[in-house]
Request: fold
Amino acid sequence: MDGLMFNSELVYRAALEEMAKRRGRIFTDAIHRSMMGKAAIEDIRVLLNAWNLKEDPREAFIERNDLYISLVDHLLKPMPGLIELLDTIKNKELRMAIATGSERRIVDINLSTYKLDFGYFELIISGDGIKNGKPDPEIYNKTVQLLALKPIECLVIEDSLNGVIAAKATGCKAFAVPNQWSDPKDFNMADNVFASLEQIIPVILGI
Reply:
């Protein structure tokens, strides 16, 4: 979801830069990339380790998400082509699910902000409901199981390398749409790499 459906990586970036400022630390692109795609709170552990801090990850996690929520109204935007892609998939009567490492309250706020919280997604699995974050395939294994589908019947769209690795480990087909903090060269194992969600629409129309 983050960085794929919405520019939420930018919102998280602003929240994390504020956290860095409060602690006299610097939030770098390298730290940001290392956090992408990981489960809720797991990414905060990566952050605190990078900053060499011994804080309680849960408290830092709450702080980060509270800052995120305070910035949503001003910064959150859907990624180009998102609404058109979702409508195309819906009109083709294909099933949709969200499998994200984000906390469920963040997922709900993102979707409700743009009225995407009803009529699109059959299933939403958030980081609250999994033990191991991406690149571990747990979240996609669980999604496929709950949808009662075979992995080969599922297409995953990801913006992070960790997400693509998880999807392929499950046995799903994986499309990558790198965001501004991703390196397109990292996505060799994806079945296809697109510059935007808009470019996926003709593929869906052809199904």
